[in-house]
Amino acid sequence: MAQVIKDSPATEPRFKARGVDKHFGPVQALTQVDLDLYAGQVTALCGDNGAGKSVLTKCIAGIYEIDHGQFFWEGRPVHIRSPRDAARLGIETVYQDLALADNLDIVQNMFLGRERMRNVFLNEDDMERAASKTLADLRVTTVRSIRQPVASLSGGQRQSVAVAKAVMWNSKLVMLDEPTAALGVVQTKMVLDLVRRLRDRGLAVMMISHNLNDVFEVADRIAVVHLGRMVTQGRATAYDRQSVVDYMTTGASSRSGQPTDGNGAKSGAR
Amino acid sequence: MARAEAPETAPDPTAAVHAATIEVPPELVAQSLGEWSRAWLTRIRSGESGVLPVILALLLITIVFEAISPNHVFLSAPNLVNLFQQSAVFMVLAMGEIFVILLGEIDLSIAYAGGVGAAVSVQLVQPGTAKWPWWAAIIAGLVVCAVIGALQGTLITRLRLSSLIVTLAGLLIWQGTMLIILGLAFSGYPSLAGLNPNLQVLYNLMWGTIDPTISWMATAVVVIAIAALLWFGDNHRRRSGLVAPPVSLTLLKIALIALVAIAVVAICNVNRAVQPSTLAGVPWVIPIVLAVFGAWMTILQRTKFGRYVYAIGGNPEAARRAGINLAAVRTLCFMICTFTAGIGLLLYASYLGGMSGNINGGQLVLYAIASVVLAGTSLFGGRGKVLHGILGGLVIGGIYNGMGLLGLDVRWQFIVTGLVLLVAITIDSLSRRSATSGSVARV
After folding, report:
1. Same domain, B175 and B296
2. Is B261 part of a structural domain of the chain?
3. Based on the structure, what is the number of domains in chain B?
4. What's the pLDDT score for residue B171?
5. Residue B21's pLDDT band (boundaries 50, 70, 90)?
6. Which of B132, B262, B265, B441 sits at a 20 to 30 Å CA gap from A213?
7. Both A252 and A267 in a single domain?
8. Which domain holds residue B411?
9. Confidence band of B285 (pLDDT split at 50, 70, 90)
10. Are residue A157 and residue A38 in the same domain, yes or no?
């Protein structure tokens, strides 16, 4: 059993996973995975292609149901069986394809499926005010008009809208799937700034990323999965690039740059 | 890591900003009318032309036919009223079809599905046999149409059959059904002529007129109501600091609506009968078409359902993840489509003076689709407005009417309408291509 280090002993993690197994037919996608996500911290989930990052994310998001193991939400054991369950707890996911409708404007996208009504009609004024407040709070100020169609936004702006859509609903944990993939330098900076602001608002943020530049730029904690196992997790300062690459590719690292705050680095192959 | 190796190409932020400025609809950012029109011109140049092409097409048709029609009869009041009556059927069919096209689907069965409903209604008011009151007959006909839509919609959404094939089958099935209901083969038809009051109501859908004085008063009430709604709505949004058009644009819109309304009523109130008899006033069909327009526009722009229709047309996956019941929304769209077709075919039956077994349903469908598409609605879904049905229907009706005035028969009407459609979709797809290539820099 992977050992978990309380590297923020004062606080209980907002979300905990313990001993999570998931298989698809004969394929074991996740084996005894533990994961801690803290409020006010960005946790980068790293791993090679097929390591199980997406499966783990989808389990937390309620798209897949786990076979064994237990999730804890703010210390309480919870079952997440559907995206609706996840949303009820305050877990929102921003997938890589963003799921925005190009032909709808920013407000319409942010409220899609949760429109505010006045009798039988849409309450556009209310929705527009709420959307522009959220965007202003997140300092997403580069859009010219909140009523412009999403088709006219840049990649970074789209990502920002998708994130704003996710945090609008009093969410407490936001999972971002490769938020900077396919973005240019300026756009990447914009999105990473946004991720920091989510953290500063006290949200727990989990960011899946391949890009170690981004990981070391924003992550407070790093977790690495390899072949369906959580091989290490701990404070970002405890790792360097090479050790993360080692963990991602081999599941272990012989480098000195290992977590110093405990035994997190040894939680790999049992 | 990959980023470190990949050489970052030209600093694209300026390009991205530039692309974004071009594509933002002008009404969102402009503070004054001058700014608005400049932004609008920029947008047109970048390929987002809105309804401008169809308005230009209308102008072109008007000028050409006025110039070459015998005695320049095209713009005479009687012909304009006639043109509107002819266009009304295309408009109503198009306004129904648009719900399905917004989803990225198509319904080829509308003319005969609507024909079944109209045949039911007409049969039910026959004084010799059914003797239903006119309103019950109309409701029965429209319910039949909605059921047909529900049936086709269910097959398409639940069994995931192609809408093209299901409604193509529908086109044949409902044509046969319609002929069975009419009880006759291709000759003669249950007539709407006669003094029976029930028959007359149906006949008057197209041919009845409203007294000129009442026309003026009703128009004034409606225009003032719309103006008040627009004015107070925009004003409220401006004061609350929400996105709103400049005051001058609101006034311009109101003035335009008033102008069109006054022009239409004035034209309709000219005596269009041969002296000494009189025939003047707004035909019933105009308020009927406007009622359908208003209702469908409200549903599409102001309700959850309408929002979901656009969302599904734009990105079905996004709609699914938002928890929208796609099957229900889609089925309802097919129902609205055939229901509206029922209204259209009732108008057509009224126009013909009875329900005929040899209506050219294939032509009606294609004219309806052509109306929608040439006014700027995308066949790929997600883009379009109910207004497109009205404007496109006028273009098709204009061609149909003008060619009739020139004495050109149906052969030439087919060819010219087809050519107009080809030109329209060519312009549409070319302008969209230039819009897309212009915004490559966004990524």
Report:
1. yes
2. no
3. 2
4. 94
5. very low
6. B441
7. yes
8. 47-208+284-442
9. very high
10. no
Which is more confidently placed, B9 or B304?
B304
Say if B440 is an interface residue toward chain A (CB within 8 Å).
Answer: no
- Which residue of A104, A115, A121 is in closest CB contact with B314? A104
Q: What is the mean pLDDT of residues A123-131?
A: 91
Task: Give dist(CA B404, CA B69) in Å, integer.
Answer: 9
Residue A25 has pLDDT above 60, yes or no: yes
With beta carbons under 8 A apart, name residues in chain A contacting B242.
Answer: 125, 128-129
Confidence band of B184 (pLDDT split at 50, 70, 90): low
Q: What are B344's two structure tokens?
A: 């259209």
Whose structure tokens read 């199980």? A52
Residue A10: the pLDDT is: 57
Angle at B142 between CA B298 and CA B157, to 5 degrees: 70
Measured between CA atoms, the residue of chain B closest to residue A98 is B318
Query: Pick the residue with more confidence: A153 or B117?
Result: B117
The CATH code of the domain that includes A183 is 3.40.50.300
**What is the structure's pLDDT at B125?**
87
Nearest by CB: A99 against B1, B21, B318: B318
Q: What ranges make up the beta strands (E) of A133-203?
A: 173-177
Judged by CB atoms closer than 8 Å, whether chains meet at A211 and B1 is answered as yes
Q: Does B165 touch chain A (CB under 8 A)?
A: no
Q: Provide the ipTM.
A: 0.82
Q: Is residue B427 part of a domain?
A: yes
Kindly provide the residue ranges of all beta strands, DSSP E only, lying in chain A, ordered along the sequence: 15-24, 27-37, 42-46, 68-73, 76-78, 91-94, 117-118, 121-122, 173-177, 204-208, 221-226, 229-235
Number of compact structural domains in chain A: 2
Same domain, A74 and A157: no
Q: Which domain holds residue A197?
A: 1-90+172-270
Task: Tell me which range, A3-12, B69-78, B269-278, is most confidently predicted by mean pLDDT.
Answer: B69-78
Which residue of A lies nearest to B245 if distances are taken between CA atoms? A147
Distance CA A12, CA B117 (A): 66
Is residue B192, in this structure, part of any structural domain at all? yes
Closest-CA distance, B296 to chain A, in angstroms, reads 13
- Give exposure, B369-394, as e/b (b: 16+ Cβ within 10 Å): bbbbbbbbbbbebbbbbbbbbbbbbb
Residue at which a domain ends, from A171, A186, A213: A171
